[in-house]
Design brief:
Elements (H helix, E strand, L loop, with lengths): L1 E3 L3 H12 L3 E4 L6 E5 L3 H11 L8 E3 L3 H7 L4 H10 L4 E6 L6 H4 L4 E5 L4 H10 L3 E2 L14 H8 L5 E5 L11 E4 L6 E4 L5 H7 L4 E2 L28 E6 L2 H10 L6 E5 L11 E4 L6 H17 L4 E6 L5 H12 L4 E3 L5
Parallel strand pairs: 1-8, 2-8, 4-6, 5-9, 10-11, 12-15, 12-16, 13-14, 13-15
Antiparallel strand pairs: 2-3, 3-7, 4-7, 5-6, 9-10
Helix pairs in contact: 1-6, 10-11
Bound molecules: threonylcarbamoyladenylate and magnesium ion.
Length: about 350
């Protein structure tokens, strides 16, 4: 796997690789994506192989202009309203697909997920290629998403399917794009992200939120978004989410000592309260964007430390913190403890 910079010369090499049917990890404002020419089924197949991704989990197609949007799907009035307000940026829309989109990209569904990223490097790469790029997060399936080039290198370094990674620094949002489906009677949030429910409702007051955003799906329930049913974001160590005050969380950990090597992923300023454990501070609940930016990096750092157990402090799930909470629910396999209730 080659490591490319964001120089014009290297981005030309990157777009040549993509046009030739190779796959390349590229930075976006949300997380690093593992990109392929979305119109080339053979290239897209390499993405599924490289990630070990189940074939029933469809991919997001990345574009750099509205003309491409109209080539790939049938946009509704709501879609244009969202595009006007939030593109380019961390919002993905699900719309009825046009036949040009290969079946492998949409996992056989008759809808397609489309996003116009705002990251200057991602934009440049899509324009240079002149084709839309299918790109899931560039992690091994099930692992925390990569928000730094180092994360991609750690997951993909010996992967025969990945031709290169473009090293473009840390991703600004740190969690994947907000996903909104526009195929049903009402617009529906399938995955929370940096574009919040509150912001979306300013444009689409009738937006609903899929049950799976905050709950684990019963086995029998058909997922609106196939990605919601797969194991996600999980570190190797057992992970437990703790909601409540610092004091109640400290008490909970003290009362549940089990001799396991433990890391606490805590809020800024809480480190000294968890003095008995190794800590990784990941931001402040008052600035939930900081939590989003660092959550995957913190989960990965905890794993690298070789710990057996991770406690993660959770902020109330409003605004951007909803996206963080949604990822932590899945990282912990829905193991969430309200430490206030136990006092
Ligand atoms: O921020 C992002 O969205 C990143 C960057 C690289 O753009 N990409 C990303 O892709 O997070 P991925 O594959 O990790 O997540 C895509 C999600 C999955 O949950 C998938 O099931 C859902 O979008 N999805 C894709 N196409 C869909 C469709 N037609 N209907 C419903 N859900 C769909
Ligand atoms: Mg992913």
């Amino acid at each position: 796997m080659r490591i490319l910079s964001t120089s014009t010369e290297d981005l030309e090499i990157c777009s040549r690789l993509l046009k030739d049917g190779d796959i390349v990890a590229i930075p976006t404002e949300t997380v690093y994506g593992l990109a392929a020419n979305a119109l080339d089924s053979k290239a897209v197949e390499k993405i599924f192989k490289a990630k070990g991704r189940p074939a029933d989990n469809p991919l997001i197609v990345h574009i750099s202009d509205i003309a491409a949007f109209e080539d790939l799907c049938v946009p509704t009035k709501e879609a244009y309203m969202l595009a006007e307000k939030f593109w380019p940026g961390p919002l993905t829309m699900i719309l009825p697909k046009k036949p040009i989109v290969p079946t492998i990209v949409t996992a056989g569904l008759d809808s397609v997920a489309i996003r116009m990223p705002s990251h200057p490097t991602a934009k440049k790469i899509i324009s240079l290629c002149g084709v839309p790029l299918a790109a899931p997060s560039a992690n091994i399936s099930g692992k925390p998403s990569p928000t730094r080039a180092e994360h991609v290198i750690s997951d993909m370094k010996n992967n025969p399917f990945v031709a290169a990674v473009v090293s473009g620094g840390a991703c600004e949002c740190g969690v994947e794009s907000t996903v909104v489906s526009l195929t049903g009677e009402h617009p529906c949030l399938l995955r929370p992200g940096a574009v919040t429910v509150e912001q979306l409702r300013e444009v689409l007051p009738d937006l609903t939120v899929a049950q799976a955003v905050l709950q684990s799906l019963p086995e029998t329930e058909k997922a609106l978004s196939p990605g919601l049913k797969h194991k996600h974001y999980a570190p190797d160590a057992e992970t437990v989410c703790l909601c409540g005050s610092t004091e109640s969380a400290v008490r909970y950990i003290e009362n549940h000592k089990d001799g396991k090597k433990t890391v606490v992923i805590c809020f800024d300023g809480e480190q000294s309260s968890f003095a008995d454990c190794e800590t990784i501070a990941y931001g402040s609940p008052e600035k939930p964007e900081t939590l989003a930016e660092n959550v995957f990096d913190a989960l990965r750092k905890a794993d690298v430390s070789g710990c057996e157990k991770i406690y993660v402090r959770c902020a109330p799930p409003n605004g951007t913190a909803l996206a963080v909470y949604n990822r932590l629910l899945r990282a912990s396999n829905f193991c969430v403890i309200n430490t206030e209730e136990l006092i």
